[in-house]
Amino acid sequence: MKKKIVSRKWLVIPLLFVLFVVLGNLSSGINLLDRAIVVGLAVDGGGEEIELSAQIIVPKNGGVSSQGNTFAVYESKGATLQEAIENLSTTIGLRASFAHTDVILFGSDFLRSGTADVLEYIFKSDLVRDSALLVAAAYDAKDLFKLKLPVNEVVSYHLVEMLNSNRDEAGQNPMTLHKYFYNYYTLGGTNYMPLVNVLKEEKGSISPDSGKGEDTYRLELSKTVVLSREGYVMRLDREDSKGLSYADKRLNSGTLGYRDEDGVRREAVILDSKAMFEAVAEDEVKLSVVTMCRPAEKAYSEHGEQKGGLDVGAVGQIKGQIAASVEACFEHCRQKDCDIFALGEVLYRKYGEKFKVRCGEDYLDKVRLTVEVTVFTK
Fold first, then answer.
1. In sequence order, what are the beta bridge partners of 275?
2. Measured between alpha carbons, how far is 163 from 209 in angstroms, rounded to an integer?
């Protein structure tokens, strides 16, 4: 028995050797110190060239902690994305590595000029992870990397933190590469990205040191950009962006305003919200939104009467707000022939060719969306 155990142990050695060889080949033999780790990528350009800006970490010899890394921004250009990436490595002097790229920013000129080829290249290649976040910039994306933020000097990290921490709040609509890839091949092919705006901060508005010396800014994510397979289509405002949130994902934070029986403006906190689409006819889809809310303020007693709860009137106002936001979002996108809620996909999966025969290629003009909202209080 001991001999068998010893012989099996010796088999581990050649197996480990093979494993090291395979891993070495996968890494292309490039040492970590010879790589430029890209944490954020900005894509700009609206003409014949694509402009890339990369926020990178260059590891230093003798240290692997965050204090031992250098953050820098490098730029490159190319007729294609592949050429721009190759030129980026040449500019840096190290091989650009996108394995840790958490966010890809797209400039407004680039989105308006047509993004199909670049986006298709990104999600068909293994350039970045499927979990990378896609974000639209109000102006040139590269300018975001030059900002000084009082809460965090690294724009890429701060933007990812904002999207991850607020992803369950109405109006915040994160888009991953994986989800973009899925939406791209639905019947309507409509997609969206959160739009990042830059707001200049007054002195001391965020921290005591803000405003000393250099100007400081903060990022805001209350609007959304809608895209077809060809590229940019329209921009959704704050309310329409909330409508997209109620219909497209699960929410567990954020607030809704209402007026109590005395006419005082109050807030209800969203504890949970789920949405489900259902094809109920060959040209009709029902969206059921179920939301759990509680008052932002604690209930109190006044002259022996309980106050501050969500009464029937408050619940009715909340229902109306959610339904109105969803319907407005749908109608605005329908006018631009954008199937923002992928209703065509819902109908086709249930009715198949019957749906296509009844509604045709311009189905959005014929499809009806009904919104049913249920509000539970706590």
1. 289
2. 25
Burial 328-362 (b: 16+ CB within 10 A, else e): bbbebbbeeebbbbbbbbbbbeebeeebbeebeee
Q: How far apart are CA 35 and CA 31, in angstroms?
A: 7
Least Cα distance to 159 among 208, 79, 219, 229 occurs for 219
Give tens-digit pLDDT for 94-127.
888 888 899 999 999 898 887 777 888 887 888 8
Q: Is the pLDDT score of 359 beyond 60?
A: yes
CA 257/CA 239 separation, integer angstroms = 12
CA distance 161 to 143: 19
pLDDT at 48 over 90: no
What pLDDT digit, counting tens, does each position of 305-333 carry?
666 678 899 999 999 999 999 999 999 99
Strand partners, 281: 284
Pick from 228, 136, 241: which is nearest to 191 by CA? 228
Segment (H or E) for 191: strand 191-200
